[in-house]
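Incident review: delayed structure delivery

Summary: a single-chain prediction request sat in the queue longer than the usual turnaround. Root cause was a stuck worker, restarted by the on-call engineer. No data loss occurred. The affected request and its eventual output are reproduced below so the record is complete for anyone auditing the incident later.

Affected input:
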Amino acid sequence: MSTKRLLRDPSAAFYTTGDGLRGVPVMLMDRDTGALEYSRVYSNTATTLTLDTPLSRTPDNYDAYILGSIPIAIESGDLIMGNPRAVKNIFYFTFEFPAVSDGNVDLYFAADQSNQVEAAWSRVGGFSMKGRTYYRMAVGIAAGTGRVIRYLVMATLPGQETEFSHMSVNYEVRDSFSG
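Output delivered after worker restart:
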């Protein structure tokens, strides 16, 4: 058996009755790069998961994993607000959602500070949807300002309903309007 299909956790006590965790989604995050990989449990013992598809590398002791997670990721395209040369500054990102939602959401931004080259993602923050119907998040990081801006909304916790009815952006555009 390939070690790329095994996820071992000596401190775990995985459910083993009947088919055990067969079919449960697994998300693994590389400790060094933050890269995410997905698979499903094919079979398991109390301390080892055998995955139905191999990972790109053998997991190590410091990688993080989540069982039962069906992650969502909403990634925008390039936000140019009508002018790719003008500098934009995003002040707030507002999420609206049904009262039955109870997910936890993280928001990331990436912006080119001086040109239109793709930049690294920066975390703006996170919030819980439980007990509310909207959340307004201030975007007070450098990645919220640039000529081309992108956002990424992520939710990864198992068993939590994450549904959005509306998302809006409060921003300004700075341009000299010279030809």
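Verification: DSSP finds no helices and 13 strands in the chain.
Action items: add queue-age alerting; document worker restart procedure.
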